[in-house]
Design goal:
Largest sheet: none
Low-confidence stretches: 103-125
Shape: elongated
CATH superfamily: Hemerythrin-like
Number of domains: 1
Strand content: under 5%
CATH topology: Four Helix Bundle (Hemerythrin (Met), subunit A)
Radius of gyration: 16 Å
Structural class: mainly alpha
Mean pLDDT: 81
Order of helices and strands: HHHHHH
Helix content: 55-70%
């Protein structure tokens, strides 16, 4: 289930869109990986990269939102925390315990219930079924987040653009993360 960038997903034609495209490429790599017991470490590596890049992206996005006084920043921050916890849960289900998300992202969401994470991969009937379940979750997670939340930033994109000029694109951070 490959994700394809569509122009209606565009926020700023710059840094944020570039980040989203890079996150999509990592998700597509996960979806394309052969789900076998022998590929578990490879799948974990992809999820590790997705977690690192997602965390960086969310922090940058929120930094830009604060700078332009984005009115929905609190709700957006809580959504980012929920998504990071879900990604952590997926990783934990495949590999066992890993370091918890940063404390600021793990804060309880008092604005409503936290969405239930997908079934952990270790509890799924097979690695193939678990891979399919996680791939579907990742697809819906990214598309829903961009369409339902990030597109609300579009009116602020022009004010964010000059502030993002000094930020390095995610895809150029590859050597630093991998």
């Amino acid at each position: 289930m490959q994700i394809h960038w569509r122009e209606e997903m565009a926020i700023d034609g710059g840094l944020i869109d570039g980040d989203h495209k890079h996150l999509i490429s990592i998700m597509n790599e996960f979806c394309a990986a052969s789900p076998t017991e022998d590929s578990r470490d490879r799948l974990l590596g992809i999820l590790d990269r997705l977690n690192v890049y997602t965390t960086i992206h969310f922090r940058r996005e929120e930094q830009l939102q604060r700078a332009v006084h984005y009115p929905y920043i609190d709700a957006h921050h809580h959504e980012h925390g929920d998504l990071l916890r879900e990604l952590y849960s997926i990783h934990e289900g495949l590999a066992g315990p890993v370091a918890a998300p940063p404390a600021e992202d793990a804060a309880a969401d008092d604005d409503g219930p936290t969405p239930a994470p997908p079934p952990p991969m270790a509890e799924a009937g097979s690695i193939v079924e678990a891979h399919r379940t996680v791939a579907e979750f990742l697809h819906h997670w990214l598309i829903d987040h961009i369409i339902k939340s990030d597109l609300r930033m579009k009116p602020f994109a022009k004010r964010m653009a000059p502030l993002s000029q000094g930020m390095q694109p995610l895809k150029q951070m590859r050597a630093w993360v991998d």
